[in-house]
Structures are given as structure tokens and as C-alpha cells.
Amino acid sequence: MSRYKEKELYIYNTLSRKKELFEALSPPHVGLYVCGPTVYGDPHLGHARPAVTFDLLYRYLKLLGYTVRYVRNITDVGHLESDADEGEDKILKKARIEQLEPMEVVQHYTNRYHEAMNLLNVLPPSIEPRASGHIIEQQVMAETILSKGYAYEVNGSLYFDVLKYNEQHHYGKLSGRVLEDLISNARQLGTQDEKRNSADFALWKKAGPTHIMRWPSKWGEGFPGWHLECSAMSKKYLGDRFDIHGGGMDLLFPHHECEIAQTVAATGSDAVRYWMHNNMVTINGQKMGKSLGNFITLEELFNGSHELLEKAYSPMTIRFFMLQAHYGSTLDFSNDALSAAERGLARLMAAVSVLDRLKPGEGGDFDVGAFEQNAFAAMNDDLGSPVLAAHLFDAARFINSAYTGGASLPAGEMEKLRELFRMFVFDVLGLVEEKKEMGDLAARLVDLLLTIRMEVKNKKDYELSDRIRNELTSFGITVKDKKDGFEWLFDQ
Ligand code: ZN
Fold this sequence. Notes:
This protein has three domains: 269 residues, Rossmann fold; 146 residues, Isoleucyl-tRNA Synthetase, Domain 1; 51 residues, no CATH class. Helices cover 44% and strands 16% of the residues. The chain is built from 16 helices and 17 strands. It has a four-stranded parallel beta sheet with strand order 4-3-11-12, sandwiched between helices. Helix 15 packs antiparallel against helix 16. The two termini are 31 Å apart. It binds zinc ion (ZN). Zinc ion binds next to loops. The site of zinc ion has 3 residues, from loops.
């Protein structure tokens, strides 16, 4: 069902610094570009947050009836250790330490990233282009920028001329920075420096003799600057103007600011209609960092092996925890907060598990129409997933009381509630039911219940005996009667 005409989605545009009504450039099609990972290490919390944020956006746009072309790139070349075009290429450094071919590093960590995204139930993008697969497109764009006078060549490298650009355009309009401040705050250029100005950035870098990842170009052998890939690939797959560009707030400056400058210099105008940024993750109130000992990979979260973790947290707990905060707020990870999210998720899933067993009645104890309206209103207000979660908890409370016979709804309303509850939990929040291990105690209780059932059956109370079996079936327990007893299997 196409709903986008009826629903008014507002999103916070980093560029205008206000919430704006989302209007697709050519509905029902939406072009969405999100900066993906630089694949040189195991996926961690910093990867999960943008992935889950833009997965929520992607799912919701599709629910509203849009056809979304979602492009999320893989950075596999050109991302140097420092944003100031200095240091080693991150992929090359890893390859050197691990004694691998750079593309082995790229493939390994791309696979690891995909595995983690699958566990988090993050939908794959429509297109996942790699920077190293788009060298020609990047060269063409660099050449265009050069021919328009916004770049200069020094000794086989090409730099973007920020001062020149800023004469006609505003460098810093996205991040709210002023070029004069940037220059006065920057360190002085050394005599070795090829840049005319410290704010300039590389479009193409000459490869030194030991630099393995290198491609021929008219400026000599080299590799593209990090910012150029996103300008070139978004243009290739989404055109000169597209709807939404997303990424983490850490990319706002310089990466996204440079993307805008490159695109404007090459094509004459900014490609992006709405810029969206998710906020950062902290651990126990601290910024996450390898030197701080609080750098937690997703695998460590899922198996509980990091020393800061009291236990393992399932992928859905992590996903739900992220969605219980607004994407625009910082999100602090702690054992207490994760345990609270785990309990909240269990409450929602418990409600889902009894939905089909609710019996309609005469009562009108829950306003399904208001629930629908409030849930959509929450999402339409800049993807307000925490508010949506609060409405789902209200609905879960009613569902539980309807299940235990304390409240009821007429059949039609009950059916509508079932449909809406599932839609918001599964389709919008993207949660899935996770298989649970049955503990020892639970297994003994099932044995006990089935032994009592045998006695009940011997007394020919078939109604109660069937009821016990059916209730167990609904928990994923299959019961098989044998001549001298029973067998059972748990497969949720
Ligand atoms: Zn990017």
C-alpha cells in the first residue's frame, strides 16, 4: 500500500539546521547515499550506529511506499591515518602488519562487516560500490575540477584549492565552519608541504615507491584522495542531484564538507537535498578509542568477551538499544543500559508471541486508531524511534492484559492491532525474534508438565491434556506421544 502521499515525514537537515518536510525529488523514487565503512578492522559499535540509523530510514521510506535506491559504499583505498592527507593508508598499514595483500584485508573485513550487519538485521543496500572499483570515475571528476580552476597539480599530486572555491562558494556551510578560522587554527605548512594552503585537500596523491595500491593517471601513478570517492560514486549511481546523503557526525568535517566542495566545483551545484547525520557512541560516558581500552567490537558484544561487559548481549538487544535513543543524540553504552534494553525487547517479543492467541471480546479497552496515529506521528517526527518504542510498550501492556483475560477488544480492532504491532516491531524497527537456548530449569519444568499430562490423560481428561500440549506447541515445543511415555523437541 502506498502511503507516502498521506504521511508527512519531517527530517532534520544538517545543512539548514532545521526539520524539513521530506519531499522526494522525483517520487516515488528516492536516492539515498550513506558513507560506509573503511574496511581495515573488525566491525564495532561505531559501525553499527550509522548502519542501524539508515536502515531505519530505508525501511520507513519503503513502508511509506517509496522505491529507494540505497547506495552505501565500501572505502578500500585512500583513507589515510590523518584527515590532513598524512600518514599511511589505513588498509595498507593493516596489510603490512598482517603480511597480507591489501585486497585480502579489504575482502576479509568486508565479509566481517556483512556478517555483523546480517546479525543486526540491517538490510543490504541496493548498491555497495567500492572506491577501488571506481578509479576512472574519480579521475574524471578530478580532471573536471582541475579544468574548472578549482584544483592545482604539484609533483604528480592534485589538490583542491579551498581558497579559490571559497571566493564564489561557502566552504564550511555544512559544518558551520569559517575558512579564516580553519586556516588560523591549522598548523603552519612545513617546507615539505605541497599544498598552497593548510585547508586544501588531496584529490589525487602521487604514490611513493613502496605504495602498493597505485593506478596510472595522466599525473603519474597514484591513488585517489579519500573524499573524492563519495562525490564520484554518488554522482554515478544517483545522478547530479539526489534526495538524501547520510553518515556519522564524525564525517561532517572534513569529509562531507569536501564532498560538497568537489561536487559544486565539478557540476556547479550541490547534489544533495537533505543531509542527515547520526550522533556518536560513547562507552560509560567516554569516547570510544583503542588507547582508552574501551574499544568494543560487535563480536565482543555478542559473545560478552570484552572485560567491560558483564555478559553477552544479543544482536537484537544492541539493535533495540540503539533504536531506543534518537539517532541525533549521543548514545552511551553501559551494562545497565544494555540490560534495560534487553528487558524491554523481551517485553515486546512476549507480546508478539501471544498476539495470535488473543481472543476478541466485548470490551474497548485500547484505542487502536490512536495507537496507529501516534506511532506514525513518532516516526514522521524525524524518525522518532524512542517515542515509537514507548507507544509499543503501551500496546504490549494491553496485549498482555488481553491475553490474561483482563481486557479485550472487538474482533476487527484486535486484528488491526495485531497487524500494526507486527508492522512496527518487524518492518519498521527491523527487530527479529531470536532463537533462545532453553535453560536446564526450563527443560525440567517441561518434563514435569508432560509427566502431569500423562497422568491427566490416564484419567481420561483429554481436554486438559490437549490444552497442555497445544500451549507447549505455541512456545515452540513439539510433543510426541510414545507408548510408554513422551518425547519432546524445542525448536523456536
Ligand atoms: Zn563518504
